[in-house]
Amino acid sequence: MGTPQAGAAPASGQEMLMQFLPLIVMFVIFWFLLIRPQQKRAKVHKQMLAELKRGDHVMTSSGLLGRILEIDDEQVLLESGEAKLRVSRGSIGGVIPAKGGKDTKEEK
Predict the structure, then answer these.
(1) SS (H, E, C) the chain
(2) Per-residue model confidence (pLDDT) at position 7
(3) pTM for the whole thing?
(4) Which residues contact residue 59 at a Cβ distance below 8 angstroms, ignoring those fewer than 6 apart?
(5) Average pLDDT of the chain?
């Protein structure tokens, strides 16, 4: 049942390439449509986190808005209204422009 036929020749390298060609093409498509853009977004996000500074207005990935009061390597102290929240630095989703383009309050 699994034995080759007497007249059948072994598959050549070109035939094997043609069998794997659809898989190779699918991988290339996934690379350019999914993997590469995700790596670019991660790089931009990492750069944004490195450039955070005191006084920046930010939005967390959960949607909280606040102004950075203190920042260290792992945590950020945010002022959101009357509340002060300590969040992970990685949870900062992005920097948002302050109203009017500049901070209305001066840094202490």
Answers:
(1) CCCCCCCCCCCCHHHHHHHHHHHHHHHHHHHHHHHHHHHHHHHHHHHHHHCCCCCCEEEECCCCEEEEEEECCCEEEEEECCEEEEEEHHHEEEECCCHHHCCCCCCC
(2) 54
(3) 0.67
(4) 65, 92, 93, 94, 96
(5) 85
Residue 12 in tokens: 């050549």
- Please state the length of the chain: 108
Give tens-digit pLDDT for 57-74.
999 999 999 999 999 999
The tens digit of pLDDT for each residue in 1-12 reads 555 555 555 667
Contacts of 89 (CB under 8 A, 6+ apart): 49, 52, 71, 72, 73, 74, 75, 76
Cβ contact 64:78 at 8 Å: yes
Give buried/exposed letters for 65-93 (b at 16+ CB in 10 A, else e).
Answer: ebbbbebeeeebbbeeeeeeeebeeeebe
Structure tokens at 44: 């931009």
